Amino acid sequence: MRPWPLLLVLLVALPLVAGVATLPPHDAPDAPIHTQVGARYLERGVAETGMKNLVTAVLLNYRGFDTFIEVVVIFTALAAVLALPKGSAPVPKGSAPVPKGSAPVPKGSAPVPKGGPQAPEPAAGSAARAARAREEERPEVASDVPVSPVVRFVVRLLAPFIAMFAVAMLFRGHITPGGGFQAAAVFAAVFIALGLALGQARAARLVPVDWRPWLQGVAPLAFALVAWIGWRLTGAFLGYPSDDHTAQEAMGFVLEVAIAVGGGVILARVFLEMET
Amino acid sequence: MEVVDVRPILAPFVSFLCAGLVFGFGRSIFWRRFFTFLAAFIKVALVLSMLPGTLQGVVYVYQFVEFTPGIGIGFRADAYGMFFALVSSTLWVFTTIYAIGYMRGDRDRVRFFGFFALCVSTTVGVAFAENLLTFFLFYETLTLCTYPLVVHAETPEALRAGRIYLTYTLIGGGFALVGAVMTLNAAGTLTLAQPGILGLESGVATLAVIFLCLIIGFGVKAAIMPLHGWLPIAMVAPTPVSALLHAVAVVKVGAFGVTRVIYNVFGVELLQQLGFATPLALLAGFTIVAASTIALTQDHLKRRLAYSTISQLSYIVLGAALLTPLAATAAVLHIANQAFAKITMFFVVGAITRTTGKKYVSEIDGIAARMPWSMAAFTIASLSFVGVPLTAGFITKWYLALGALQADAWWFVLVLIASSLLNAGYFFPILHRAYFRPAKEPWPPLEPGRRFEMPKTLLIPIVICAAYVLLLGVTAEVPGMPFSVAQVAVEGFFAPPGIGP
Amino acid sequence: MLLFGLDLDYVAVVMLFCVGLYMLVAKSNLLKKLLGLNVMETAVFAFIVTAGMVEGGDPPIMVAGTSAPFASPIPHAMVLTGIVVAVSVTAVALALIVQIHAHFGTIEIDELKELP
Amino acid sequence: MTGPWAEALPWVIALPLVGAALTPAVAVRRPRAAGFWAWGVLLVTAVLAAGLVSELLARGPFSYELGGWPAAYGIELRFDHFSAWVLPLALLFVVIVPFSWRYLDHVMPDERRPPFYALLLLNAGGMIGFCVTGDLFNLFVFTEVVSLSSYALVAVGGRGLAAFAALKYLFIGAVSSLLMLFATAQLFVLTGSLNMAEVSLRLAEVGGGTAVMVAFAAYAVSFMVKAAMFPVHVWLPDAHAIAPSPVSAVLSGMVVKVGIVGMLRVYQIYYGAEVLELGAFNLALVWLGAVSIVMGAFFAIFQDDIKLMLAYSTISNIGYIVLGLGLASPYAVIGASVHVFNHALIKATLFLAAGSIIHQTGFRTLSDLRGVARAMPQTSAAMAIGAVSIVGLPPTAGFVCKWYIALGAFEANQAPFGFALVFGALFIFIYYIRMLNAFYFQKPVHAAVAQASETPWSMRGPVVLLASLCLILGVLGGIPLTFVEPAVLDLLPLWGP
Fold first, then answer.
1. Cis omega (within 30 of 0) on the bond before D395?
2. Cβ separation of A83 and D112 shorter than 8 Å?
3. What share of chain B is helix, strand, coil (3-state, %, to 5)?
4. How many whole angstroms separate alpha carbon B79 and alpha carbon D89?
5. How far apart are CA A228 and CA B54, in angstroms?
6. What percent of chain D has pLDDT over 90?
7. Out of A127-131, B465-469, D339-343, D365-369, which region has the weakest mean confidence (pLDDT)?
8. Where are the domains of chain C?
């Protein structure tokens, strides 16, 4: 075992321990974390935001902008996965050296460098058409390991219930732990389970190709829309009208649904794109 | 009296614009020549138009933009700057004529003439720099602009020379930058408009470091030994470049910088208190003698001229470092005197190489018969360097000697005498071979239909420059000639502090 | 819980962080490295949630059946955001690992380094 | 006391982000339209940024309370003088994106363009948000937008090695982000707030202590990694060299500056609170900066690949900036801040010019590219100007910062560092002069290089524009000062000895 990782870990551990050792004790109700901003949220949160689940209130209202950027982050992950080169071009071990860097394909008379794997795929007309073509060519069962009938049966049996649970989390999120993100995660879990058990093609049909460009961006778009509405209504970006609980709830609801749908679609698509 | 006038910035800008036009449209020979000449004449006209005012003590100033708080890119045509600008813009005209003839049929002429114009632009920029920052900007730009000229031949030898040139000059530039920065820290200003901006209150140690940095920084280009290593090597460049480098632009910018440091950054009074100038004068004296001695041993014509240049440049440094008005006059004057004489010599050597292919002293036996005009010009230039009366060189030596005596440094007179003897020692053998030795083999005949020994574009600059060397020597006291400008400049250096020239 | 003046909950968090860091730097398998990164992330989230807890606190949901003291809601929102970020990073990392595997046929650093 | 433009503050962040979310939808029929869409969005963003800067110049720094919540309770956006960086940032994107239209032809098939441009927009939006947010946790989230899109952008161009470089970048970057989150959490635990101004005030009440110091150290290490300082630079060269050239320009010119801007923000908090004596830390920064300058140059000398060479020079240049920050004298900090912008400009010039050459010839090493200047005179001239500029020789933009930082070094009585700075830069010139010699003064070895044609105008225009700016800003060096000077003078009275 090489010693340097341990040394590095020790080097990091000592200052961190020193750092946390001098923090105020965390369980005490008079710690700054409870007496400062947090105290106001607990006292006036329900009145100011109309949400009983204060975590949701912080998430969507007080610090709604964070959540906006957060859905952007997850959208970034999808864009990243989509932007990476597709398909495989394996290089067997010990073959010709791969040129350092993304050696470009020269134009005109320039000789083509040997880096075959770096060459671009032929441009394939419209993205949507290409994507649909790929969907159709996809084998029924992506995995080469046959899926047991028991697993298939159980997944098919439970999927609607899990989905229902997700919907419940979404709609009960304002009074119980839960909310858009949790729902999105569960939606995606159902999708992945279905994809593994029934084949990706059948799972992929759950997210229609034509809708994908809109669905995957729905969360940031909904945030922008709500932010704009809030701006019109209250004069502040992402502002909620403080006296109108119906409007508050409606705006929060739109955001939660958008997060659940957008997040779920993004996670599902990331899964679909991760083919080897 | 200071007058706000746009001409000090226009003068460098003209050749800058010219460079742009040459790069843009230079593929056509006609337009290339047209722009180059147009710019050269406009520039001379601009500088000359300021001359009457300068002689009456008017200083033209123009602040361009503020670069850092309180310090802008400013231009200021005082007498000394005018003197230098006159020399370089006049010589640009001649060098351009010569270069057109010399470079005929060579490749990459667009690049050559473009950077040529840039060099002149920056040289005039240095001449008119109002403060040390502006000075430094142009000084460094000059380094970069000369590099493509030095490596013009694109041979491995040229690339090596270019590398050495850059190493020397950029490190020098680094020292100059540090010096400028420290000056700003110590003095709070960088202006070159006053006879000295630094004061004793900065501490002797700081002042010593500043002096050392600035002198190293500018001394590299002035080729004070031991900072001269780049100069003989850079000889691989085409002859017009050597002429420009060695007579006008690069080395003179260095010498000009040293003078500015002595008279405008430190000031006579402070340097007399500090005594920093004495070691510099000694070093300059050493350079004068040592470089001349080395020149004796050189067989390659251009290398012999290069060591001669090193020696002659130190006249300027010596003159400045003696800190007396008469020596300063000599220093200022020598900028012009050495420039015209040395450029004549380079032109002649280039013409010899172009016409006969000879590059070594030992090869030119009897060449005077083949190239009488050239060798006559060369003779005049040699006499000037030796310091024969009625040539420009005599004026320098006379005032330098007087200045040395004024400074109670009589031993420098010995240096001057030794230098004159050495100059004779390495120039007269050339003349001897050219005039009195029989040719080893017949020289190539004149090309048919040609009246003179070489194309007129080569000959005319040679003749004019040589004539000018004589003219400077004969008419030194005539008003309007360089001497009168130099006197105005020196009055500025020795004016009491606080009163601009 | 305190021991020698040290808050053991926090110390446990730091230890978890270090375990993750060790996995990240010492393991050769890229997937294990990624798992290490996730452990580190979890450690930081645990730190934030721990800090927001209060002795005998209820979740900050103002419905019948909960009563003061409440845990602070901000750490929960922070951690939720953090988790999403962590998921995103993991997704991108997995996509890259998949690519590396497709291209080189291995995800062991030791073997990747031996490739020409 | 805010004018009409202040209302645009959240939108200048939201616009590129929403634009990114819409990109796949907009480009669903014509993938190449994504490029034009991204450009349009960035153009509008730049206009908004210009409006914000005009507001800043007219009325000074201003805030925006998101959702109408008072600063500490919601998230506050703060547009101060350091935030003015968003304008050049947006403008550089506006220049770089058109370059990528044609450049991507050899990098990726059309169908992957929409996500690529979405990533670029996200990157831009993330950086803009990073510069204007006044909330520590929000800062972290924006960091993640920037980082995540950067990881992916590194890998879009190639397969195996590109993915590997991106993954290395990702691991190191993710750890640094975690450190940042950890430090944020610590400050939150100590002060109970996430708003920067509030945290600063509360820290002054809480006073110093090990935890405060550790938080600072965690921030510092985190931002140093982001900025690729010398000991933690290992991720940078491969990632920046292997990415497509427009991406390299973005990463090398702007994304590493996230670390610098972040450091400035942390300085604002800590100096405002006056809880830590940062003299020793500044001295360490100075040393690290000096070492970075030298090591970056040292590694670059041995590179044959032009983009790898440029990538290493980023390390050197970050060294300048950090050296300037550490010197902590007004001129030095001004120089460092100005260099944040000037280096972005110069690096964009260099990477785009290098990209043009690679795009037209198919070669990327100096030994292959000999004599390319004859075939591509304008691009090579831009490369030459960039090279002179990055070494800090006049009359180019690079000189301005060298001048200031050198001035600052002597002002702070740190003469040795002044010397190191000036001559370290010359050391760097060794490898650029090698490049220029190869381009201009050596015979071509490949027919493809000798016969290469100039780039199409959509690529040449940006390169020529950027190179001209390098020259213009070398003369009009005072312009960036308008923004930087007030910011630095605000910060410095609180600065260490």
1. yes
2. yes
3. 75, 5, 20
4. 46
5. 68
6. 39
7. A127-131
8. 2-55+70-114
- Residues paired with D63 in a beta bridge: D78
User: Domain C2-55+70-114: which CATH class?
Assistant: mainly alpha
Contacts of D116 in chain A (CB under 8 A): 83
Cα separation values, D123 from A175, B168, B430, D101, Å: 36, 44, 71, 17
**Which residue type sits at D145?**
V
Name the percent of chain C lying above pLDDT 70. 93
* DSSP annotation of D452: P
Contact list, B163 vs chain D (CB under 8 Å)? 433
Predicted structure pTM score = 0.90
Query: What is the Rg, in whole angstroms, of the alpha carbon atoms belonging to chain D?
Result: 22
pLDDT band with cut points at 50, 70 and 90 for residue B346: confident
Task: Give strand pairing partners of B74.
Answer: B63
Q: In the predicted model, what is the mean pLDDT of chain D?
A: 88
In this structure, is residue D179 part of a structural domain? no
Instruction: For chain A, say whether D108 makes contact (Cβ under 8 Å).
Output: yes
Contact D115 A103 (CB under 8 A): no
Query: Which two three-digit tokens encode residue B192?
Result: 């070159």
| Whole-number pLDDT of residue A124 | 38
Of D89, D116, D134, which residue sits at a domain end?
Answer: D134
Q: Is C81 in Cβ contact with D174 (below 8 Å)?
A: no
Contact C99 D155 (CB under 8 A): yes
- Helix or strand or coil: residue D146? helix
Q: Between chains, do C100 and D155 touch, taking CB under 8 Å as contact?
A: no
Residue B445 has pLDDT above 60, yes or no: yes
Rounded Cα gap, residues A215 and A264, in angstroms? 9
The token duo for B437 is 């030795």
Which tokens is D347 given?
């690096």
The answer as to whether D238 is a domain residue is no
User: Any chain D CB within 8 A of the CB of B42?
Assistant: no
Separation in Å, CA of B99 to nearest CA in chain D: 21
pLDDT at B498 over 60: no
DSSP H or E run through B59: strand B59-68
**Which residues, in sequence order, are CB contacts of C81 under 8 Å at separation 6+?**
A59, A66, A67, A70, D137, D141
Residues of D in contact with C103 (CB under 8 A): 159-160, 163
Window 94-113 of C, Cβ < 8 Å to D: 96-97, 99-100, 102-104, 112
Residues B293-317 pLDDT 10s: 998 888 888 888 888 888 888 888 9
Residue D283 contacts A, CB cutoff 8 Å: no
- Using a CB–CB cutoff of 8 Å, tell me whether C8 touches chain A: no
Please give the residue of chain D at the shortest CA–CA distance from B169: D426
D178–C40 C-beta distance less than 8 A: yes
DSSP alpha helices (H): ranges in chain A? 4-21, 32-35, 37-49, 54-57, 64-83, 127-137, 149-171, 180-198, 200-204, 212-215, 218-234, 245-273
pLDDT score, position C108:
87
Pick from B57-66, B160-169, D4-13, D457-466: least confident: B57-66
D440 close contact with C: CB closer than 8 A: no
- What range does the domain containing D358 cover? 277-497
Question: Could you give the ipTM of this predicted complex?
Answer: 0.87
Q: Which of residues 59-88 of A touch C (CB under 8 A)?
A: 59, 63, 66-67, 70-71, 73-74, 76-78, 80-81, 84-85, 88
Q: What does the pLDDT read at residue B216?
A: 92
Higher per-residue confidence, D3 vs D419: D419
- The answer to whether D119 contacts A100, with C-beta atoms less than 8 Å apart, is no
Mutation target for B interface from D441, D476, D484: give the one with most B CBs within 10 A. D441
Considering D82, D100, D134, which residue would you say is the last residue of a domain? D134
Task: Determine contact: C64 vs chain A, CB below 8 A.
Answer: no
pLDDT higher than 60, residue A95:
no
Residues 6+ apart with CB under 8 A from C65: none
